Structure formats: structure tokens, C-alpha cells
Fold each of these.
Amino acid sequence: MTGLAGKGILVTRPREQAEPLIERLQAAGAHPVPFPAIEIAPPQDPARLRQGMNRLPELDWLIFISPTAVARFFAEFGERTLPASIHIAAIGEGSARALRQRGVGEIVFPEGNADSESLLALPAMQAVRGQKIMIVRGEGGREMLAETLRAR
């Protein structure tokens, strides 16, 4: 981050995720201005997440959309172990890193862009007919990943 000295930078990341970026900007001489564009709140219906967790042994895939989704899932999941038969996917490197920090070994994720399109382009996501998949994500957002997987 060169050339940022003295510049004001609006940081729109959620409050819980902004600090590392703010520190990097300050180290580069910038003046970061926190302005969270979204707020991360607990799920409106935590029972739905628990129901999904009870179905883990039936699933073929568990897909995490963000590091926050990983954190919220494991906060509820606790110290239990994921079924050995389940495949784990992440939308990008940040989510994969959060999963590795929780002891998850094999993770399928795109190494370039961190988006639904890049994940869906991976060979592992092509032939999913008849497979049971749970997507761990926040409420709202795009439905494209789920819709595409259903269509496949």
C-alpha cells in the first residue's frame, strides 16, 4: 500500500472485520475512516442453524461463504467433529484460512476470485446431481450459488 500517506480512506467493512485493514492503512500513513456499510448480527432463527447441524451426517457438502459464516457456525457447533464423509468448500482463501484455523483439513476453494462464480467453476462443483449440500451464510445476499447448485 504505497502512495497512501495523508490520504483519507473510507473503510466500509463490517465493524468486526475492519480492524486489520485499518491497521494496515495506518501503517501506510493513511487516515482510515471507519464507516461500516453492513452490520453483522446473530441469526434471527438460531434453531435453523442447529437443525442444519443435526443433518450434517446426511450431507455430501458443507459450503462456507465467509470467515464470519465459519466463526458463527463453529461458535454454535462447539468442539464437535465434522463427519469424515462430508466435503468442505469455501468461497475463497479467507474462509479457507478460517476453516484451517479450526482444524479442517481438506477444503475446496477457488484460488483466484472469492465469489460464487469462481467456486461454481471448480471441477468438484460440476457433478453434484443428487448430492445434499448445506450453504453456511448470512441472511440475505445473492441466491445464485444455491440456485445454480439446485439446477445442477
Note: The CA atoms of residues 81 and 104 lie 9 Å apart.
Amino acid sequence: MPLNDTIREMVVARAKAAQTNASGLLFPSNVGKKWSSPGWSQYFKAAVSHAKFEDIRTYDCRSTFASHLVQNGASLRAVADLLGHSGL
């Protein structure tokens, strides 16, 4: 999914902040922890609806993320690690 300049700048700023916060999470919940499935799902569905996307799931974003990494030269091992996979 392409990101406009505003969103790209926000993600880069969050990535820098995640390097220094205790959780290391890019998008922590409002209490600084990993999102629960119901909590994340609520906001994701609202964002999808607001953007007027049809038939998109969080898994689609995960797959797109992995595809972009590989297309831009990331190793399969690095992609597996970023996605939390134990193997390739």
C-alpha cells in the first residue's frame, strides 16, 4: 500500500522513537503495550471503512509488507525474523 509523504514521515518518526522506548513497538497501544486482536481489529476496520477500501484484511498488509521487503532486497531470513517466523 503506497504511503503519502505525511504518513511516511510519521512512520519514520515512530520507528526512531521505537528504538528508544522500552517496548520497542512501532505502534503501541495507548498503554504502551502490544495491541490485543480485538483492540487492533476495531481500529483497523474503522480505517479501512474510512479509506473506502473493500475486502482488505490485516493479513493483506502483512503480506504486502513482506513482498515489499523482498522486492527491495531484504533477505528471506530478515523477512522471516521481522514477521516473527521461526523458519523460512
Note: The mean pLDDT is 86.
Amino acid sequence: MAAVAFLIDVVGGMTIDNDPTNWAFTSDLVIRLPRAPAPVSVDTRAVILRNGARSAICEMPLTVNGEEWGSSLISFAKVPRREGDPVKPPFDAHAAVTRMPTEPLKETLRAAAGFVSRNRSQGIVAADLRTELLNPAGAMQGAVVAGLVEAAAEDLADEQLGGDRPYVVTEMEVRFLAQNRQSPIVSSARFVGNPADGLIRVDLFDDDGNGRLTTAAVVRVAPAP
């Protein structure tokens, strides 16, 4: 799910974030995936549904071999650069694509991001704000936020539901409430309703879990296919 979130966030962001005087921060992200083995590759494109002065919404159809496989919607808030913010680099679509790594990770995404499970039965996972996890404005990148939500939900499900197969996230709704800027970012998670239904509420807090509520999410988990 985090890899798909990254694809959606990057393609949507590259489409919308083209004003040097404003940041375009992800504000809402909804993803629906089938409960099926991961395909070799997934394609998407940004279909702009609304692009106003203060916000934008894109539909991000997810296709595999030309067939619709999953769906997503992503919203962005347009925020003027403040004095003291990092300089916003000029947008160059070709450079953005060519700078991205082309080799697969040699470790899990969770390990590469440095996520640390503190209490699996409560979905408590922590992440330090390393440079590799930040967006150009210096806050945790939107897809990394989604990855931390995913890790919290999977920890909770694996620990409390058990079973022969690990649990994976198949649906995700994320509300980005504030920028994650004070390290470490820490999650908490709980089941909503009957745990067997796989619906989980996840919150993220900054300042080692003692600060602001930065992210609120609802996800659904299922045993890996």
C-alpha cells in the first residue's frame, strides 16, 4: 500500500505542484486495492477533478496491463511559502523522473524508512524524521506518512488477529491534519467494531507521541493472498 501511495502522491503532486510561490501539500488520500497478489507494476495518471487557487483534487486510476485494478483520490492544499521556508526548487518533470532510483530496495520498505515497532498490540510504531523521508518543505513526505499508518495497522492486526498469513492493508483513507515536523512521529491504532471485519483507526502524533495529532486514518486489513 505504501508503494502505491508513493506512486499516487508523486504523480498527483507533479501534476498540481507547479507554482513556485506555493507549496502543494497532500491533504486527503483515499486508496482502494483488490485483495490479490501484487502485480509486477502499476500505472497511474492524474485526472484533475478540480484545481482552484487554494486546493486541488485528482482522481488517480490504477491500472495493470491496461486494465483497471484499483482506484484512488488525492487532494492537495495550496499553501504560500513563508519566510524562512526552504527554497522551493524549480519544477522539472524530466529531472524529477530521472533522479528517482531505478533499482528495487534491498530491504523492506519498513526497514528502509527506519520504522520501529514499539508495541505491536497497540499499533505503536515510531519514525524519526530522516532527510530521506522529507518533502522539499522539510516535513514528512505524504507517502511515508501513509507507510507509517500501514505499519501500525498491520502490527495491530498481526498481533491481535494472528493466523497463518500476515495481514495487509487493502483500503486506506488518510486525513493529513498538520505537517509532521517534530521528531519522532508515533502512531496509535485500534479496531473499530468487530476486529474480524478488519477496520482499523490509526492516529499519528509528533514529538514522540506527546505532541499534535498530525494524521487521522481509517484502513481495512485482510490476510495476505
Note: Residues 35 and 170 are 6 Å apart (CA to CA).
Amino acid sequence: GMRDFLAAPAFWRIASASTLSLAAQVGFLMHQLPALEAGLGLSGAALAVSLTAGSAVAGRFVLGGLSHRMPLPILASGCYLVQGAGLVLLLLGQGAPALYAGAVLAGLSVGCIVMLPPLLLSQAFGANGYGTAYGLTNAIMFLGASTATAAVGALYDISGDFQMPFALLALMHLAAVAVIMWRRRPAV
């Protein structure tokens, strides 16, 4: 039952990594337009949002093609790192080409970060446990995502720009990599 999942380290590893990555993604997407408006103007920032959405479609096709060819935790780590790299480029990039490239790079994993939890959970728990594991994971993920959106806004209010919030979001992706790749070593 539900207690079995809550006691399983694999459940918490997947739920935690998925929550960190989704929270970072939603925090970014909710604030992307105002964050880029200063450097690109409103119409340029709107174009960057469109580029993010378009690259998200391409990223889903890539994930679909790779999901049966490589271990899912490594694929998830790659997605988290790609989006984190896009955030770093948006954070440090100077000029429109760098900001557009950051938007595209961050967008490549947008659809993937939503598709990965079901893949990871079905692999870890099989068809019989999938429904419960996915329901619990979704509850945790969406609580994290809603919290991150508010936290980015609060950090913006405190700091006056998006540097600190976007740096935190990139670090959340790094933390997600560490969590999904963590394996407990057997006792000797």
C-alpha cells in the first residue's frame, strides 16, 4: 500500500529529484517573460518564450527516442543539466543571441521533466504499483512547483533582479542530478 512506497528509498529518490527539477522549471517558466524583458524588450522576451515552447516539443521527441536506449536516471540527469545550463546562460549571457540560446536550451527539457517521473516510477515499481507511486509523486511535485514560483517572486522582491532566483533554480537542477544518481552502497 501507500506505506510501502513511503518507506521505499527509490520512491523518495524519484519524487525528490522530480520535485526539484519541476519546481526549478516552473519557477523559471512563470518568471521567464519579466526576467528577459529588461534585456530583450517585451516583444523580444515574448519571442524567447516562443522559442522555449518550440524547443520543448523537439526535446520530447529526443527523450522519446532515447528513453529505451539509455538508463533512465542518466537520461533524467542529462535533462536536468540541459535545463540548468540554459538557466546559467540566461543568468550570465550578454546580448540577445545568448539570451535566445539560453531560452532554447532551457526549453529542450521542459516537456521531458514532466515525462520523466512516470517513466522512472514505472521502471522502479512496475504496473501494479505505478498508480499509487505516481499519485503520491505528483502531489509532492506540484506542492514543490507552487512553492518555487512564489519563492522566485519573493527572491526577486528582495534582490531587485532575477540573478539570485535563477542561480537558485540552476542549483536545484544540480541537486536533482545528485539525488537521482544517488545509490546506497550495500553494507559490507
Note: The mean pLDDT is 93.
